[in-house]
Specification:
Rossmann fold; alpha/beta
Length: about 425
């Protein structure tokens, strides 16, 4: 492994990579592997990125215009695109970005792309008159999602018979909440659907609708499972429904040892209904894993606000499902009385509709304020005063545990690092 100490001149963390080459490569072949294709390091070892591998490649004499380097550059550009939320890139854009990154002639990039396609390291698909290049796993995930949704939606709903008027009246007497006509029709549609999307902005009654639906179905002995993509969303779901809700990873029994999920098509979830909240936050790979574990006999309800930011990972699953027209969609738009008193909620809807929200608080008890300051130092001072003194005193909350400040960057006087310090 001493011969691999070339890494030390590239990255100070390299010692952890070269002390035990057998963990990554086949014994004595480690040196030959690195010299033949240093870009294997970026693919196989967590912590080594393309730039580090590219520097190593230069040191071991890999030509800048080599096909090996061009292939690695193309894969890197595609991987970076997935980190930005894309499942694929148009061929011309991919070639352009790789050419710029590697500073080589375009013909080298195109030859490398042809080899990647022949070797099935990337795949090509024509969509809407665009030639798109995918990493194979992402294309398979997209196809898998589409196929599973189609299979589920082709089957009729198989819930036990429900007298909906009596059931809703019973729920209203238990909860003390009267359902609006739009919510009643949404429940009827959900009970009649194998797969359905329920969407809408804040304060439009999604939670009330789901709670009522769960009350009805649980009374009919329907086995329901609830999940959400994040721990916070799952906790909130548990609080509002009174049922256990799990993160998707916990529901699918993620294994740290194998790095995979124990629940899959061979060992599916045991449920008649799966309800997924905050679906807009679920990316393509995770949705694919989740749907593989949904039994063919189950029903599926996807809940979320399509106008929220899409998932951090690749894809816009909820938005694409709605636009596909393949499954029924309930879009709630009516802001209910209790929610209408929140200026946060009304402002969110106004902004979403392209309107300027009311910037002056309607009362001292308002939950939305616009405070204008000219200079960064003044903004910082006001933020600190609000977070440390005014809001905790007004809301009887803890300034560290209960408050969150959203800022657009990490660096600078108004960045997360400076504000946290």
């Amino acid at each position: 492994w001493k011969s691999l100490r070339i890494l030390f001149t590239v990255d100070e963390r390299a010692e952890q990579w070269v002390r035990r080459p057998n963990d990554f490569f086949d014994g004595e072949a480690a040196i030959d592997t690195v010299r033949a294709n240093p870009y294997t390091l970026a693919k196989d070892i967590h912590g080594i990125g393309f730039k580090t591998a590219d520097t190593i490649a230069e040191k071991v004499g890999i030509p800048r215009d080599s096909i090996i380097r061009a292939s690695a550059g193309l894969s890197h550009v595609l991987l970076e695109a997935t980190n930005s939320g894309h499942c694929a890139l148009p061929e011309e854009l991919l070639v352009e970005q790789a050419t710029k990154l590697l500073e080589v002639e375009e013909k080298v990039i195109r030859e490398a792309l042809s080899r990647l396609l022949v070797n099935h390291e990337v795949v090509q698909e024509r969509i809407d008159e665009h030639e798109l290049i995918f990493l194979p796993a992402l294309q398979l995930a997209e196809i898998g999602i589409a196929e599973k949704i189609q299979k589920l939606s082709r089957r009729r709903a198989s819930y036990p018979p429900v007298d909906l008027d009596k059931a809703i009246e019973w729920c209203e007497s238990k909860t003390g909440k009267q359902l609006a006509p739009s919510q009643r029709s949404a429940i009827a549609k959900a009970i009649d659907s194998r797969v359905i999307v329920i969407t809408g902005g804040p304060g439009v009654g999604k939670t009330t609708l789901i709670n009522t639906l769960l009350l009805i179905l649980r009374a009919k002995k329907v086995n329901c499972l609830l999940c959400a993509p994040t721990g916070r969303a799952a906790k909130r779901m548990s609080e509002t429904t009174g049922m256990e809700a799990k993160t998707i990873h916990r529901l699918l029994e993620f294994s740290g040892a194998s790095g995979g999920f124990m629940r899959n098509e061979d060992r599916p979830l045991e449920c008649d209904l799966l309800v997924v909240d905050e679906t807009s936050m679920v990316d393509v790979p995770l949705m694919h894993k989740l749907l593989k574990a949904v039994p063919q006999s189950a029903h599926l309800i996807l809940v979320g606000d399509v106008d929220q930011l899409p998932s951090v990972g690749p894809g816009m699953v909820l938005s694409n499902l709605i636009e596909s027209g393949v499954i029924p969609v309930v879009k709630l738009t009516e802001i209910f009385r209790q929610a209408a008193t929140s200026q946060i909620i009304t402002s969110a809807h106004q902004i979403n509709e392209g309107q300027l929200p009311e910037l002056d608080p309607k009362s001292p008890d308002a939950d939305f304020f616009f405070i204008e300051r000219e200079e960064p130092a003044a903004i910082q001072a006001t933020l600190v005063q609000l977070a440390r003194d005014r809001i905790p005193k007004k809301q009887q909350c803890h300034p560290i545990r209960d408050l969150q400040v959203l800022c657009p960057m990490n660096r600078g006087s108004l960045g997360a690092r400076e504000l946290n310090s």
